[in-house]
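Student: Send me a single protein entry containing the residue sequence and its fold in token form, directly below this note:

Tutor:
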Amino acid sequence: MLDDLTAHIAKTSGLADPIAKQALGIVLNAAERQESPFAEAMFKTIPGARDLADEAGADLGAPTGIIARMIEQTPGGKQLVARDMITALQAAGLDHKDIGALLPAIATHMEDVHGLTGFGHLGDLIGSDLDAGTVSKDPDTRAA
């Protein structure tokens, strides 16, 4: 399943498979650090997604401690996580166009293949304060 998502990202964005997988890991790590309900939904749905996020975090030197994670969820911390994510994606070789196409590619796959909605933009993925109940497997239901 993870390979299917990575292949979809590569195909729709024009990125090479290894870069698409690295980019997905970076995004998932940022989302997980924000305790995003969408990250949790992906981790439950796609085997290996949490490991990919953890590997990306280790590669980036992302904080793992409880207090550091709490700080990352403050308004300033959210900005720092988002900035670090963009910086890491750029270091992986993505330009602004690639980064802009990444989340819609993830969203399309998650909705079409798994029926999960609400992955459409960065605010939903890492900046949302919505509870996990907003992630729907019903394609007719979308997160606000």
The first helix runs from residue 2 to 13. The two ends are 27 Å apart (CA to CA). DSSP finds eight helices and no strands in the chain.
